[in-house]
Amino acid sequence: MQQNVVTAARIVTANVSSGPWQVVFADGPDGRRTVGLAGPENDVFDGVNRVDDLCEMKERDAKFIADARTLLPLLVYEVDRRDAEIARLRRQVENLTAQQPSAPAERPLRLVS
To answer: Which of 16, 37, 45, 102 makes an SS bond possible with 64, Cβ 3.0 to 4.6 Å?
Structure first.
């Protein structure tokens, strides 16, 4: 499952608008507060040049935002899982090294992360 999560994240992020994005708040002419997103080239929305422009979010960016709520916690879990595995392997190498202090130093055990 772990590789599937990473693959899914790569697919979702492959075609989204360039970032970083920023949240933009504006008061509309009717007094309602609106929230939008802007990218470095105003490319998160189709045809937006100003905050008060009428615009529609690009479908691929909307899908990215929706999928992020599911994928982000899974990716954080995967990072935590891999960190724990690296720590376990480091302890294992340390234990093996400590058990054999007189072993020749020609080829010491080493964990590359």
So the answer is: 16
pLDDT digits (tens, 9 = 90+) for 45-104: 554 555 445 456 677 888 888 999 999 999 999 999 999 999 999 999 998 888 776 655
CA pair distance 94, 86, nearest whole angstrom: 12
CA distance 64 to 96: 45
Domain boundaries, the chain: 1-16+64-101, 18-57
pTM above 0.85, yes or no: no
- Give the pair of three-digit tokens for residue 35: 């929230």
